[in-house]
Amino acid sequence: MADSTQNGPMPGGAGGGAVQFLMANKLDTAMWISRLFTVYCSALFVLPLLGLHEAASFYQRALLANALTSALRLHQRLPHFQLSRAFLAQALLEDSCHYLLYSLIFVNSYPVTMSIFPVLLFSLLHAATYTKKVLDARSSNSLPFLRNLLEKLNANQQNILKFIACNEIFLMPATVFMLFSGQGSLLQPFIYYRFLTLRYSSRRNPYCR
């Protein structure tokens, strides 16, 4: 599931190797930072340590950061934009396009805890994979405790992806409930249904089926 990067460890000192790696992969580094920010904001929404009012703003920030990450990833996958039906069809096959749409669906809606989990977990998985590459570029033995945490997270990747897929499905009746409770818009269930049909055809997460 994680983004692929062609660069391996860089020569130089421990810190210098990591810095060179980050500078040599600027777009991947930008996505890594935005994903870490998404994880941070999502965590402060799920655990409202700064109060409920602040939690709502962290919800919106997490979705906006995820939208930025998805847009950068989509640009990386499809660098040459074309205003054509063929390009749109190709873009709709990309998971990054799906989650750009997902963020736009929920960013201005009433905060729903269930809707933040896919954003949080995807960001965590991708950020963990890139963090391991940064550690490898720094030194093959650097920060063993952090490496062990990343390995455990990677070992549970399948279970996390299954949980995300179930979460995406159960959000469909949640959007309908939000509509009847006055917390959602009339278009939201229909747009979210379109999102689910796109996820069903996902080439990267087979558990959606």
UniProtKB/TrEMBL annotation:
Keyword Transmembrane: yes
Subcellular location: Membrane
Predominant location: membrane
Topology term for the membrane: Multi-pass membrane protein
GO CC annotation: endoplasmic reticulum; membrane
Keyword field: Membrane, Transmembrane, Transmembrane helix
Residue ranges crossing the lipid bilayer per the database entry: 32-52, 99-125, 169-193
Database matches in InterPro entries: PER33/POM33_regulator (IPR051645), TMEM33/Pom33 (IPR005344)
BP GO annotations: endoplasmic reticulum tubular network organization; membrane organization
PANTHER family named in the record: TRANSMEMBRANE PROTEIN 33 (PTHR12703)
Family affiliation: Belongs to the PER33/POM33 family.
Protein name: TMM33 protein
Higher taxonomy: Eukaryota, Metazoa, Chordata, Craniata, Vertebrata
